[in-house]
């Protein structure tokens, strides 16, 4: 499995990055750092969509997703990321299916 991280600003996809593939287990951990360089004037209108995919020889299967942004249940994590620019901020999040 792998994670794909998409950065959206004003509902437009700006950038994306992917993790290295991992073996699926009961608790697979993606402990990687991702930096997105965006103009400060747009950062507050952005959100991060994290999608977990299971790889197959000819396709991929969406396992679940989590959204980080200035609104919603992940707001505290978002605020910590905005205060600690270029510093790792880690937190567990449930995947929505």
From TrEMBL:
GO terms for cellular component: axon; dense core granule; plasma membrane; synaptic vesicle membrane. GO terms for molecular function: calcium ion binding; calcium-dependent phospholipid binding; clathrin binding; phosphatidylserine binding; SNARE binding. It comes from the Eukaryota. One of its GO terms (biological process) is synaptic vesicle endocytosis. Coiled coil: none annotated. This is C2 domain-containing protein.
